[in-house]
Amino acid sequence: MLLAIVFAAANLRAPITAVGPLVASMAESFPFQSSVFGLLTTIPLIMFALFAPVSSRMSRRFGAGITMIASLFIAGLGIVLRSYAGVAGLFIGTVMLGSGIAFGNVLIPGIIKARFPQRVETVTSVFTISMSAFAATSSAVSYPLSQITGFGWRNSLAVWLLLLILALVVWWPQRNLIICDAYVDAPVKQERPVYRSPLAWWLTLLMGAQSCLFYFFTAWLPTILQAKGITPTAAGYVTFAFQLMTIPASFIVPAVAVRLKDQKGLTAVIAGVYAVSVGLFFFIKSKALLTIASMLCGLCTGSCFSLCMLLLGLRTKTAERATSLSGMVQSIGYAMGALGPMIAGWLHDLTGGWNASILCAIFMTALIFISGRKAGENRYV
Which terminal residue of the chain has fewer beta carbons within 10 Å of its beta carbon, N or C? Predict the structure, then answer.
């Protein structure tokens, strides 16, 4: 089960983070504006938002195992269409890819709560580390792969189909998996819907703000770095450093957070460091300093995401409740996150620079501070 979680996590971000470093190459085939290329990162987030509420219902009807296998298959078809079916396939494939990934986003936290109830923080760390490691690798290798003679950006995006096929193989023995609570001390009374809980809404806002920042950087960090004079190859490696720093955060933050009385102070520290790191992009052009700023942003975004995933378990008493909360938080949270790449691309086209987009990113760090103070309270949804 742990291996299945690792392989599922590996496919939840890598096919998306591969796009950012390839935008300049893709522009040679499709002469779109920046805002249109931003849709290639925004569309999956819209699919996350649309299908997150459906995921828990599909899991209850067909079982989590079958639902995961079907979603991985759909994502694989999306990868193929995105690369090889022209302009229509580029967008239809992206829609299918995002739709498939959406189910894994929602189901994995519930599966962790059900199958590892005494080790939620440890398995959550494994889950987020796997996701972050492959997202970082994707950012680093997508452009160099595209420069191999005869390979190109299409094959560079399609290569992640191999990882997805491996995930399907590993998940097949788990096809009969259902989400249920392994440990129930007493009958659980009927609970009110999660959307009626203020705590659930604060957690949703936290998820939305961190998603907006993560996908803003995923879509546009390589382009921002190139605008500051860094070569495309070097920009890909700096983006890799950004993604790489999410890995230690994914390991350390859950281990620290679960030992605290509440997580309010932890989110305040993360938000403060995030605000300073994003603000550095206003003033610096040095490659070394830009790398440091990018790595600090990566550390903070990894901290925020792993904390959100952990809170889905810490703020609920049962696996079914965690799955329902996950559906709400990720549906609305990713809808907010979808605005990041789209608004940033639009502001760039409007102003001719990236400062307005960076200012919006700083505002998102303020939302992380405010929502994190509330979501970090030691209460149950």
Answer: N
First to last CA, the chain: 27
Contact status, residue 367 vs residue 201, Cβ threshold 8 Å: no
Closest CA to 123 of 261, 255, 318: 255
Q: Which token pair is 42?
A: 């925004």
Nearest Cα residue to 5 out of 176, 165, 129, 181: 129
pLDDT of residue 359: 94
Q: Is the sign of the CA dihedral 50, 53, 58, 61 positive or negative?
A: negative
Which pLDDT score, from 0 to 100, does residue 190 have?
58
C-alpha to C-alpha distance for 75 and 94, rounded to whole angstroms: 9
What pLDDT score does 233 carry? 78
Q: Are 126 and 90 spatial neighbours (Cβ–Cβ below 8 Å)? A: no
Using DSSP, state whether 184 is helix, strand or coil. coil
Per-residue b/e over 142-179, b at no fewer than 16 CB within 10 Å? bbebbeeeeebbbebbbbbbebbeebbebbeebeebeb
Q: What radius of gyration do the chain's Cα atoms show?
A: 19
pTM for this predicted structure: 0.79
- Kindly give the parts of the chain with pLDDT less than 70: 34-35, 180-191
Distance CA(53)–CA(43), nearest Å, equals 17
Domain residue extents for the chain: 2-178+195-375
Tell me if the domain spanning 2-178+195-375 has CATH number 1.20.1250.20: yes
Tokens of 170: 């590993």
Could you tell me which of 157, 147, 139, 1 has the C-alpha nearest to residue 68? 1
Q: What is the pLDDT of residue 35?
A: 66
Distance between CA 160 and CA 167 in Å, rounded?
Answer: 11
Burial class (CB in 10 A: 0-12, 13-18, 19+), 95: middle
Place of tokens 């932890």: 266
Q: What is the DSSP string of 325-360?
A: HHHHHHHHHHHHHTHHHHHHHHHHHHHSSSHHHHHH
pLDDT on residue 188: 47
216-230, pLDDT tens digit by residue?
998 789 889 989 988
